[in-house]
Amino acid sequence: MAKKSSKVLLFSKLFCCFLIVALTAGCAGQQTTTQKTEAPFSPVDLNPKIQSGKMIQSVDTVAVILDASATMLDSYKGQSKFDLAKTVVCRMNQTMPDLQLTAAMRNFGSRNTSSAYEAAPFILGSSAYSEAEFGQAVKGAKNLQGGSPLDLAIDATTEDLAAIQGKTAVLIFSDGVAMKSASVQKAAENMKSKLGDKVCIYTVQVGDDAKGKALLEAVAQIGQCGSAMNADSISSSAAMADFVESVFLMAAPAPLDSDGDGVPDSIDQCPNTPKGATVDARGCWAYMSFMLFDFDSAVIKAEAETALQEAVKVAGMHPDLKVEIQGHTDNIGAAEYNMALSKRRAQAVRDYLAAAGVDSRRMTVEGFGSTMPVAPNDTEENRARNRRVEFKPMD
């Protein structure tokens, strides 16, 4: 008896472990393939595109409508269409990058058609998006059988989204079969009328029914800014990544750079820099002092020719341009001495440009010593940034 009890206890422990794994697997348990020859699905990581600044989040809410009607139990390519739909939604969930979203999910069938709610119950109520929670919701979705009241599901989702701000992507996963086409399209039109530009509708057909395809394409077209496709077309990792990107991301707008100096307006401290001028990280027309002068000297070095000839060229390109040539130093040494040195250097640059043909009346000079640093004087690198000659365009 002791041995038998031990075996029962061991079996119970193993069963409990299996049950725990099954319950926590989420979408991992939904990774069936549509065809035996299909390569295993490995989600593409889209986070680097966001981190690089190339892409930004384009929607604030995602609402999934999952067809759980009787026709979804029909077999398609070796499995039920309902299981295939869940697999596609799971793969989308696994491919989604780290986004700040509100997520909701409803399914629809007609086990009880007495109300829209029973025809389109929540699988996941509106909440902050979590890949794990979303995956568990998909895995736990049950087929409701019966008819296919997609119109009621769309109506219920419209009410869900009425008070939600920002852009919303509504994604419908269905075969499009056994539906009242006119009622479904009317529900989609009502959604678009009530929610306007803040909603886009995407439809993903599961199966290959021709009438279902036409209906789902019409629904997506009513949404105006979404799209219609077949689940087969997004079965690969790369295709699913493209789909997720098209729904949830968009290209980051190019930073505005009004003066064309390569520094975005948002951080440009010297707007309207003349074309052709070298600028520093602040967007200001400046040359490092070590490029122009030896240490503790106001005599222009031979190596300064390239920089100063550029300044001559810019002056020639902009004949009405007037500038104040400013000298700046770091904070090493006496303040009075630095002030005088910075002005002598500014004067030397003015003399060079005048000798090169720039009208001296277009140029004034000023020395600021260490009073206008562009970086803390705490490292040699930062002190070097502060030692500069700057050209400030004047009105």
How would you describe this structure to a colleague?
The structure is a single chain. The protein starts with a helix and ends with a strand. Helix 3 packs antiparallel against helix 5 (131-140). 39% of the residues lie in helices and 18% in strands. The protein has 395 residues and is of the alpha/beta class. The strands form four sheets. It has a six-stranded mixed β-sheet with strand order 6-5-2-7-8-9, with helices on both faces. It folds into two domains: 39-251, Rossmann fold (3-Layer(aba) Sandwich), CATH 3.40.50.410; 286-394, 60s Ribosomal Protein L30, Chain: A. The chain has 13 helices and 14 strands.
Structure summarized in a few sentences:
The chain has 395 residues and is α/β, with parallel strands linked by helices.
Number of strands: 14
What average pLDDT do the residues reach?
88
What value does the Rg take, in angstroms?
A: 33 Å
Please tell me the total number of domains.
2
CATH structural class of the largest domain: Alpha Beta
Q: What's the main sheet like?
A: 6 strands, mixed
Structural class by SSE content: alpha/beta
Helical proportion, percent range: 25-40%
Q: What's the overall geometry?
A: elongated
Beta-sheet strand percentage?
A: 15-25%
User: What's the name of the CATH homologous superfamily of the largest domain?
Assistant: von Willebrand factor, type A domain
| CATH topological fold name of the largest domain | Rossmann fold
Write out the strand line-up for the largest beta sheet, numbering strands in chain order.
6-5-2-7-8-9
Spans of at least 5 consecutive residues whose pLDDT stays below 50 are 1-25, 32-37
Succession of helices and strands = HHEEEEHEHEHHEHEHEHEEHHEHEHE
CATH architecture of the largest domain: 3-Layer(aba) Sandwich
Give the end-to-end Cα distance, rounded to a whole number of Å. 102 Å
Tally of individual helices: 13
